[in-house]
Structure formats: C-alpha cells, structure tokens
C-alpha cells in the first residue's frame, strides 16, 4: 500500500478489533468514549464480556485506511491501558491464525510469569522484614531498605501505569490513585502498610483477572457452537465425467482424506478411461469461506457447520445447542439441517443453503454478542454513576486531608492517612465489571436453553411483566392444520380446486392446509387473476372467468351472504363464487400438550393475566381458552385488533409481553414491552421482528425466560448493594479513624472479586 494513501472509500465501513488482556471495565468505558470521539468514527461499541471493539466509520467522508484507523485506535487504547493489545480481526482471518494466537499467548504467559515472580519475591521480602522487625533482628535502615525494594517489586507495574496515565492527563485512574495513597503512607512513616496495600492490591488484581477470564470462558462455553473448519468437497467441474456422489462409495478411511488419481503405466482400454468417474477431493477450510450451494461432509460426532439440505446419508442429530432440547432428530436425504446441531451417528453429505453470516449459527452468535450493545437501564445508570463517583470521592479525600487539620489543629499525618483510605476506595470497578458480566451471563445462559435475548434491556423488562398476550395459531395450538370436512352445494373436488387456486399464494397455515389437501387428492388448479388479500378476512381473485372469495364468516357478512352451514367447533373457511355461497371447508388444529402447563408456569413466575388473541370464531377460541386455562380470550380480531388490545393494556399501566409465531405478528411484537417470537429456527422474519426469539415451539420457554431474567436481575442488584454498601461502610469508618488501608483494599479489589464470582452464578 502506498504510504501517502489516506482514504479508500466514502461509504460507511465496519471494523472489529480484539483487545487482548483487557480486564479493567472502567478503562473499557473510557476507551469506548475516546474511540467514539475520533472524527472518522460514527459509532463504536466495546463489548467488555468478549473484548471486542466494533467500529462503524462515518459515511459520506473519506474513510481512513484500515491500518491508519487501527493505529489511532491502538493509540487510544494504550492511553488508558498500555499493556492491552489491539488485533484487527479482519487481518487475523487472512493470516495464520494459529501463529498469531500462539505468539500472543506466549507473550501473555511471559508477562504473567514475570508479574508472579515479582509478587513472590516482593511478598517474601515483605514478610521477612516483618518477621525480622518483630524479632528485633533488623536495624531500621535495613528494614526500611527491604520495604523499599519490596514496594518497588510489587508496585512496579502500578507505578509505571500511573506515570503513563498522568502523562495522558488521566488523573482519576485507579493506578494513579493507588500510587498516591501508598506514597502518602510512605510520607507519614507507615512503611509496612504502604507495601502491604500495594502487595494485596496486586494479588487482588490477579484474582480479579482470573475471575473475569473464568467468567468469560463460562459465557463462551455456552456459545461454543461454531465450527472452525469444514470438510469441503471439491466437486467435478461442469462438463467433466463423474459425480460427487461417488464419494460415499469409497471406504470411509478414504472418504475422510484428499483423494487423487493414481498414475499408472499399464495400458488401459480407451473406453474404460472415458467412463471412469472423476476423483473428488475433500479439503478442510475455514467455515467463513464456505459459500452457499457448496457440498460438505459431516462425520459422526461432528457439529454441522452450516444450514443445508441432506443430499445423502442418514443420521440422528442432537439439536440441543440450537433449540435447548436434547430430543434426537432423525434426518435423511431431503431433510433440512441447521448449523450447530451435532451429528450423532451416520456420515452426511450436505448441500449448504447459506454462508456463515446468514446461517442460523452465525445469526445466533451475532445476536448473542451484539446483545451487549443494548444495555439495561441498570447498566446505563452504573456507567453514569461511575463517571461521578470517582471524582467525588477524590474531592472528599482532598477535603479530609486539608480541612480538619486547618480547623481543629489535629495532626496532618492522621488526616492524610484517612484521606488515603478514600483514594483506595475511589474506583467503582466492582460495579462496572460485575453488572455487564451479570447481564451477559444471563443472555448466554438463555441462549444455551434455546432462548435468544437481544439485549440486557429486554432481560430487565421481563422481570416486571404482569400480562402475557398469546397468539393462538402455532403458539397455543400446534399450528398444523388439516382439512377435516367439506360442506357445499357442489362436488368437493371443484370446491377444493377453486379454494386452493386462491390460497396457494398465502403462507398462512390454513391456506397451506387447503393447498396440501388439494395436491394430496391429485387436484390440479390453474392460474388466477386480480388477486387481492382482504386483511383478516380472506382473499379475492378471478379464477376460470369467475369471481371467487375465500375467507371467514366476517367476509360473508361484508358480502351480505348467508352461509349454508353453521355451528361446529372447527375453523371454517367459506367459498363464494359470483356472489353465491358455494361451500365451506373445515380445518382442525390441536392444542399443544404442553400449553396448559406452560401457562401455569407463567403464573408461578408472577404473571397476573394470560390472554389469547385470535381472529378465529368465538366458540372455537373459548373452547381452546378453557382447555389451556387462560384468563381471557379475545376472538374474531383483525390484525389491528391485536395491536389495540396491547395498547389498551399498556395504557392501563400493564407491562406487556406478546408471544406469537413472528410471521404475521410484526406489529404486535413491536408494540409490546417485550415481543417474543416462537419457532425462530430458520425463520428470518422471527429473528428480525422480535426482542426475544424462542428457537423451538415450546411455550414453556416463556416462563423459563422470565425465570432467567429474575435470577440475572437479582444477582445484579446484589452486586450493586454489596459494592456500594461495603464501600460506604469503609468510607465512613475511615473518616472516623476506625478503618485501615487493609479494609480499603478489600473494599476495592476484594469486593470486585466477590461481585464477579457472584455474577458467575447466573450461568448455572
């Protein structure tokens, strides 16, 4: 690249960086703010739980060269955290990932080993000096000299970090404040305490880093469904002899390694050479590079890397990583499979139907990671609070050090010591680390159960939900309609032909049932003209030169037509031709076996009212409502009627959750406080429209989502109370002279460690 090049494109671009070694949450917040202040950046989000920095550049101006932008971001990061590395993830994908990882890992191990060595030697000197002093074996100059060496060993990293931060103008930073506090202890002659505070601060940091990394690994393990390498089958080019289907004819020992044609010197008949199948080759490549339409091989025990259709082979799959349920799924040629499922038995050849980014597994992982961008109100409050807390405590510390000695004439040493305690407790790390880790842990836990929650704000909103609205079809019922009976003044075949001709364009389950019944009977229908959907009522079109209407009883009322049949407990579709009632088709749907238990579980989680919304007839809806144990049934609703019912409930102060299939319920999903889409496995619209996506059709996942949200929010509140309570206690005792720096260190790193460990409970 030319060194003078400064721009590549005026369109907005997205860059992703990994900040290796970032364990300071308050520093992460400062880095995010500083990167957002760069003129090239439209918005930047730092996901502390995954150490990823996502940067979107400004559109309409010359965008920076990636290398120059990376340099600017690195400069910002090192301003706050000099030891943190910045890795451009796009560059990593194009280089040897293993080598980069090993190099970074090796460098991290060397730094960690050096830090531990310094701590061990420093701790040995400190305790040796303490013992020698207690036994009267060390004169003061020797004892003080040992303390100085121990202090420099254990505090080297903190002191250097404080110096660098001071040069950057970062006064309210933990390392600088800790340095001032311990130097103050030296000034007033508290040598052992100065060393002890720095020593236990460093030990606390190590434990804190360990706990953060363990929490991250625990979260990552819940999302460990990505397949790094895919067995890609290199197929014969068009026009070549042979077929890729010959692969499974090979012994398995050959099928799992590249196959090449052996050279031979023995003569062979020309005819044999012409009919010999072209060999195939299997290559292990990065999953991100596999395109839609590729042919891949999945062995027993391996995870399926991408969505696709089985071309050959039979197997039993474990889909628990996607749906949260471990029920086995049998697949055969023609079956649709989803990335993330585990192949338990046979060898499968799969034709991919999506690349990595648009596959189920890619979208799930992106949703989980990006959920950190949608912060709960508690997270936003803590972020704002942290910006005020540290300067306020430092200001109070300065006043404590100066005002009392001037007013009362007390010893400057006494009040300087008490002010140092304030400096030690001034960092809000326990809050800014544990709160986002708690919410992200809850999101990760939910994902492992087949529940995708798009942000901490929705996880928080679920806690107070007191009203749940449920769509009927596909949510309470199976949504698998079947034609049960046909009424009419004409032959059933003629009635089905016209109805199917109009309904085959619709995705509605009832329309599909009518179309499938016609096809099952071998009925062929022709083209229609002037097709029009009548929202919530049916459809209208011209077929075979006549005007047809197919729809509900409400449609008949609008047309002023009296049906030739009435009553019954099945969903009824009426057929009208040229203004005359021709007949009706009854379709049946069964309530899910788990619906009643799922609704009861919602009530146990604190939901006060469960309501069903449906456009079906009143008598059918009420029968289903009674069987499912619903509190209220609202029937014969048009699509806007569902929205109005939700708006009315919210207007009465209710906190509303709407649960639907995500296909025809986008307005209702959007207007509710929390919109939950059922059956999101493979349904693009479901994933896009809802705040929470349940990957299978189990209604009991709604209660489970509420349960996870309650546990997550309880842990977050515990962390806030723990951190603020202990810090306030130590600050108060320190002001009265009843606390030492030992307690102050515990109130800082000790409480942060406890809060992180408490956050990890959410994962279980």
Explain this structure.
The chain is α+β, with helices and mostly antiparallel strands and 764 residues long. Among the domains are: 14-95, Alpha-Beta Plaits; 291-355, Calcium-transporting ATPase, cytoplasmic transduction domain A; 440-476 and 591-709, Rossmann fold; 482-588, Calcium-transporting ATPase, cytoplasmic domain N (3-Layer(aba) Sandwich). The chain is built from 26 helices and 26 strands. The strands form five sheets. Strands 14-26-25-24-15-22-23 form a seven-stranded mixed β-sheet, with helices on both faces. Strand 20 and strand 21 form a beta hairpin. Helix 1 crosses helix 2 (66-80) and helix 20 (595-604) runs parallel beside helix 25. The longest helix is centred in the N-terminal third of the chain and has 38 residues, at 97-134. It starts with 13 loop residues before the first strand and ends in a 5-residue tail after the last helix. The model is unreliable at 1-9, 94-108 and 238-277 (pLDDT under 50).
């Amino acid at each position: 690249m030319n060194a003078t090049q400064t721009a590549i494109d005026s369109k907005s671009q997205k860059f992703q960086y990994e900040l290796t070694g970032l364990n300071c949450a308050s520093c992460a917040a400062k880095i995010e703010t500083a990167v957002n202040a760069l003129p090239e950046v439209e918005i930047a989000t730092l996901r502390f739980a995954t150490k990823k920095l996502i940067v979107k550049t400004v559109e309409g101006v010359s965008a920076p060269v990636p290398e120059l932008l990376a340099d600017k971001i690195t400069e910002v990061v090192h301003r706050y955290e000099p030891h943190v590395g910045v890795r451009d993830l796009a560059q990593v994908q194009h280089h040897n990932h293993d080598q980069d990882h090993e190099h970074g890992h090796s460098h991290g191990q060397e730094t960690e080993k050096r830090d531990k060595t310094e701590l061990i030697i420093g701790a040995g000197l400190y305790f040796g000096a303490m013992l020698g002093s207690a036994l009267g074996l060390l004169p003061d100059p020797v004892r003080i000299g040992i303390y100085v060496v121990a202090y420099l060993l254990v505090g080297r990293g903190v002191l250097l970090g404080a110096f660098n931060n001071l040069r950057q103008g970062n006064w309210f930073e933990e390392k600088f404040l800790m340095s001032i506090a311990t130097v103050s202890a030296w000034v007033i002659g508290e040598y052992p305490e100065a060393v002890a505070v720095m020593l236990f601060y460093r030990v606390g940091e190590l434990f804190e880093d360990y706990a953060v990394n363990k929490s991250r690994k625990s979260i990552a393990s819940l999302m460990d469904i990505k397949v790094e390498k895919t067995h890609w089958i290199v197929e014969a080019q068009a026009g070549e002899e042979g077929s890729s289907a010959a692969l499974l004819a090979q012994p398995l020992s050959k099928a799992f390694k590249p196959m090449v044609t052996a050279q031979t010197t023995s003569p062979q008949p020309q005819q044999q050479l012409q009919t010999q199948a072209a060999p195939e080759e299997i290559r292990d490549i990065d999953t991100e590079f596999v395109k839609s339409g590729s042919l891949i091989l999945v062995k027993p025990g391996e995870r399926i890397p991408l969505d696709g259709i089985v071309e050959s082979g039979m197997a039993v799959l474990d889909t628990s990583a996607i749906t949260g349920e471990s029920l086995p799924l049998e697949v055969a040629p023609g079956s649709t499979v989803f990335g993330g499922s585990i192949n338990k038995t046979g060898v499968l050849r799969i034709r991919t139907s999506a690349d990595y980014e648009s596959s189920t597994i890619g979208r799930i992982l992106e949703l989980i990671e990006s959920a950190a961008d949608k912060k709960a109100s508690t997270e936003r409050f803590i972020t704002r609070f942290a910006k005020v807390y540290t300067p306020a405590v430092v200001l109070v510390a300065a006043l404590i050090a100066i005002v009392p000695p001037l007013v009362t004439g007390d010893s400057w040493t006494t009040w300087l010591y008490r002010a140092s305690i304030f400096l030690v407790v001034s960092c809000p790390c326990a809050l800014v680390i544990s709160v986002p880790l708690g919410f992200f842990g809850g999101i990760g836990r939910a994902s492992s159960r087949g529940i995708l929650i798009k942000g901490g704000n929705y996880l928080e909103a679920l806690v107070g939900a007191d009203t749940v609205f449920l769509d009927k079809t596909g949510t309470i019922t199976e949504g698998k309609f079947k034609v049960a009976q046909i009424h009419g003044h004409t032959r059933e075949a003629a009635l089905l032909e016209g109805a199917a001709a109009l309904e085959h364009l619709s995705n509605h389950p009832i329309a599909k049932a009518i179309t499938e019944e016609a096809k099952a009977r071998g009925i062929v229908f022709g083209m229609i003209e002037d097709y029009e959907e009548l929202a919530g009522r049916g459809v209208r079109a011209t077929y075979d030169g006549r005007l047809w209407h197919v729809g509900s009883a409400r449609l008949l009322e609008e047309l002023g037509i009296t049906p030739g049949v009435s009553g019954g407990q099945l969903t009824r579709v009426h057929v009208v031709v040229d203004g005359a009632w021709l007949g009706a088709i009854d379709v049946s749907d069964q309530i899910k076996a788990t619906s009643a238990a799922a609704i009861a579980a919602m009530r146990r989680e604190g939901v006060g009212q469960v309501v069903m919304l449906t456009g079906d007839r009143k008598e059918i809806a009420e029968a289903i409502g009674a069987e499912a144990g619903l509190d209220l049934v609202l029937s014969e609703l048009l699509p806007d009627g569902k929205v109005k019912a939700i708006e009315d409930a919210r207007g009465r102060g209710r906190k509303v959750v709407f649960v639907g299939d995500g296909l025809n319920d986008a307005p209702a999903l959007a207007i509710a406080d929390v919109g939950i889409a059922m059956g999101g496995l493979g349904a693009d619209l479901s994933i896009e429209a809802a705040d929470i996506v349940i990957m299978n059709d189990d209604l009991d996942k709604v209660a489970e989502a509420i349960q996870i949200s309650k546990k997550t929010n309880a842990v977050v509140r515990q962390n806030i109370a723990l951190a603020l309570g202990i810090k306030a206690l130590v600050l108060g005792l320190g002001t009265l002279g009843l606390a030492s720096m030992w307690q102050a260190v515990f109130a800082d790193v000790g409480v942060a460690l406890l809060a992180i460990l408490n956050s990890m409970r959410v994962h279980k």
